[in-house]
Amino acid sequence: MQHHIIRSAAFFQSAFYANARDMTPELSETLLLLSTGHLFGLYNPNQVADALGVSKNKLYRDLKEMSLYQWKSLLVGVSSTITIEAIRQAESKSASTQSRRCITISVDDTNDPRYAKTLSYCYKWWSKGKNCAIKCRNILAITLKIGGVILPLNIRIVSKQGRGNTDKPTCLRTMIAEVLDVFDAQGIDLRKYPITFDSWYGSKDLIETLLGLGFTCVLVHGKSNYVMEINGQTAKLSAHKKTVKLLTHQWGCDKPVRRFRAKSPTFDELVLLFFSTHGKTQTMMGFGRPLRTAEILHIWSQHHGIEQFWRHLKTDLRLSEMSLQHRNGAYGALGIKIISYLMIQQVSCSTRLTFHQIKLQLSGERQMLSIISAHFHELNTQEYL
Fold this sequence. Notes:
This protein is α+β, with helices and mostly antiparallel strands. The protein is built from 14 helices and 11 strands.
């Protein structure tokens, strides 16, 4: 296990220098130390400093050297480096293997409750779980799922104040454009993979933007209040759900389904799929290349991956337990969590252990962190690549 962690640390040390301007050895060591600490249950600079007997003030000073622009560039660069290699490996496999892995892009956001007055990006956002507005940070992410592996492509903290380009839809367009630029430069076309959204993101403007960028398949979960014309009958989806007769034992489908060509005043023509899950009838709206019923269900099942990503970030890596001041500090705390998540994913691939198995195995091995930290300042990156 120690060798796998050192090898992963070597990869990230090299990636830091390749994707962040003015990366100093001291800052690189600090980022690696704090990120690796998450594998051993140390979730913030104070815990790492207490466990290793180092100065926590030095850790905080090193983190202040990173600007907001550097954090954003580092997160996109490091995540893309790992994802590009994973996609190339998947595309080198047979067509049947690629179909089973079902590479899918997903977009979603989450709330990170925050109550301190001095922290940036804290606003009142609506919480589905508590059914009220709470003070928190809203974090928007684009992830890519390959088989059982979920990798973040771009992540942004959404602001409610500032210029007109800070709202969530505009941030999403900017994030997608950034990701496409990086992957296009490496000769990988992300547009051929399906992209999924939940019902909050449904808008004609977004669909037209994505199709204009070249995406061939866009799936959006339908809202019950959308008005649809199906077989000459115009009504809200909530009304259609009561009258539509779902079909069982359809090819490749493990649940009752019904597929229609529909027309909407909001979205124009689209493919509309009704399906039953957990005793409730839900709908999926398909845009771009027409898909079979089984394909839509298979792709939508991948959307749950972004929820797994949020759970790992918030529960397993304790996103709320690291608090750094100012805007660059907010991205610094988020960035360290993302790097530690990617590090655990790398160790998982090399050891064949799951995310939770790695955490459980290392939870009582904090003395190993002291041994590993001694390698950071003298690591030969070429040895472990």
